[in-house]
Write a structure and sequence with these properties.
Number of domains: 2
Order of helices and strands: EHHEHEHEHHEEHH
Strand content: 5-15%
Bound molecules: 3-methylbut-3-enyl trihydrogen diphosphate, magnesium ion
Number of helices: 8
Length: 253
């Protein structure tokens, strides 16, 4: 069985895809949103438990007004078109990001689909919309300090205060469009995520390519700081603690 359970995707390259075809950038977004439906539908078949899609970053506000508006409209359109299928497929839907800054009708549609799927037990589908990884971390720290002003924060405190903690760490981050950067996406959750950059622009991305990427990445060895399993050494946090303790004992004695 694949070790890849949580896939996060930076759906990039819509604008360049359209420019290559001498069409407005917006056309790329329209075509790109059709691909989202295919990928979501295939998530079960690909064995995923969580799929997080980067749809609009906090930095994307700097784009031309017309482009920003079309991205909001496409989100609403997607939800209207897919909401029944999302419910039927037992998908638990949530948006992460600062949605209070979005148009009122977009917010109410998001809430509607979130509420409709609140008891779903299947795929955790997350749209990162008006999302920034740094903003998510700062928000979590502020929430923590407001309720525990005297306490020192731990990693698990911070993890539990992410927008959607139940989806956990990212196993695989795919970025389409050819650029090799993270662009402020899931910074905390990506600490040990495998990264895969494909030159395919998002409107050309297919379920078949995604399946191949998952197969390819599943064969990578994830060592989490340990040595290779072939060397047969240490396999847990416990052994790290034992090593640390005996090392310190040795140099302090
Ligand atoms: C990704 O495609 C979609 C969003 C960022 C909303 P782009 O619009 O960034 O496309 P390129 O990178 O300019 O080709
Ligand atoms: C990242 O793509 C954001 C989304 C795909 C929503 P961008 O196109 O905004 O990223 P940069 O500007 O190339 O880093
Ligand atoms: Mg881009």
């Amino acid at each position: 069985m694949s070790q890849i359970k949580h896939v996060a995707i930076i759906m990039d390259g819509n604008g360049r895809w359209a420019n290559q075809r001498i069409r407005p950038r917006i056309w790329g977004h329209v075509r790109g949103s059709a691909v989202v439906s295919d990928i979501v539908q295939s998530a079960d078949e690909l064995g995923l438990k969580a799929l997080t899609l980067y749809a609009f970053s906090t930095e994307n506000w700097s784009r031309p007004f017309e482009e920003v508006s079309i991205l909001f409209r496409l989100l609403s359109k997607f939800l209207l078109k897919e909401k029944q299928r999302i419910v039927f497929n037992n998908i638990k839907f949530k948006v992460i990001g600062e949605i209070q800054n979005l148009p009122a009708e977009t917010i109410s549609l998001i809430k509607e689909v979130e509420d409709l799927t609140t008891n779903a037990t299947g795929l955790n589908l997350t749209f990162a919309f008006n999302y920034g990884g740094r903003a998510e971390i700062v928000r979590a720290i502020n929430i923590f300090h407001a309720s525990h002003p005297e306490k020192e924060m731990t990693e698990s405190d911070l993890t539990s205060l992410m927008y959607r903690p139940e989806t956990g760490d990212v196993d695989l981050m795919i970025r389409t469009g050819g650029d090799q950067r993270i662009s402020n996406f899931l910074l905390w959750q990506m600490a040990y995520g495998e990264l895969y950059f494909t030159p395919t622009k998002w409107p050309d991305f297919t379920v078949g390519e995604m399946r191949k990427i998952i197969q390819n990445v599943s064969s990578r060895e994830r060592r989490y700081g340990n040595v290779s399993a072939q060397n047969g050494l240490g396999d847990s946090k416990d052994s790290a603690e034992v090593n640390k303790a005996s090392f310190l004992k040795g140099i302090n004695s």
